[in-house]
Amino acid sequence: MQPTPEKMKVAIVGTGNIGTDLLMKVLRSPWLECRLFAGRNLSSPGMMKADQMGVPVSGKGIQGIVQRRTEFDLVFDATSAEDHKRHAVILAELGLLAVDLTPAKVGKMCVPAVNLEECLEAQNVNMVSCGGQASIPLAFAIASVNQDIEYIETVSSIASRSAGPATRINLDEYLATTENGLAAFSRGTPTKAILNLNPAQPCVHMQTTVLAKIKNPDLEKTRAAVAAIVRKIQDYVPGYQLIVPPLIESNRLAVMVRVEGRGDYMPKYAGNLDIINCAAIAIAEAHARRNRP
Known about the structure:
Elements: E1 8-13, H1 17-28, E2 32-38, H2 45-52, E3 57-58, H3 62-67, E4 74-77, H4 81-94, E5 97-100, E6 108-109, H5 112-119, E7 124-126, H6 130-145, E8 149-159, H7 165-169, H8 171-184, E9 191-198, E10 206-214, H9 219-234, E11 240-249, E12 252-259, H10 271-290
Parallel strand pairs: 1-2, 1-4, 2-3, 4-5, 5-7, 6-7, 8-9
Antiparallel strand pairs: 8-10, 10-12, 11-12
Helix pairs in contact: 1-2, 1-10, 5-10, 6-8, 6-9, 6-10
């Protein structure tokens, strides 16, 4: 009987909704083991959940990581953009891989369906934003089969209840980083990102629309390219669904997707948390597979 391969040891800093949902995904992963869940408040719901599940916890934030730095290989940062700018320096000095779930724009932008392999060479990867993870692959697919793209715009709508304090204080960074990611993965096309926080009850699922102004769009090739990239995303985000295939509307090419979460910690409508966490797990598991003895 073959021995069970040792899992990659990871830590999570940031114990809000996104960090706690990420923890649930790490615990389910056959490739990862959470050695520390670090935040600032030991009585927060996420911290208490981790403690109840037997996960080691720390109320010292990034200093908890520093104090136990030899116990893990990779750190997920689910705090805020401003916090990660400080954390990135510390994690680099410790020689730890960093997977940044904030829109800090410090590390290499990572969208697993598009550039997973090249991101494995980076010490710090940035998961862009939830809207970026939903829209950038679509923009990439559109740009791969069309020339003369004048403009790309993405509009994401998420349930207001799925946008926590960190998301709200990072809105400016979210929009700027999403726009930068769209431009970078679509050959420098001018871009715009819009985020709507929808207070509707019952809560809506995340929906993202990508609109592109193209002089002579090739609709047949675009549909094939989009279908292919959607299948790649569904390998690590099962709830990613193409609900409006590419079509021409008001002289623009339009495509729409919906993201349903797995309900690991937040309800299934919180697809915005699910897609960025699934993307973060995908890059971490890729590291673990590559490093397996």
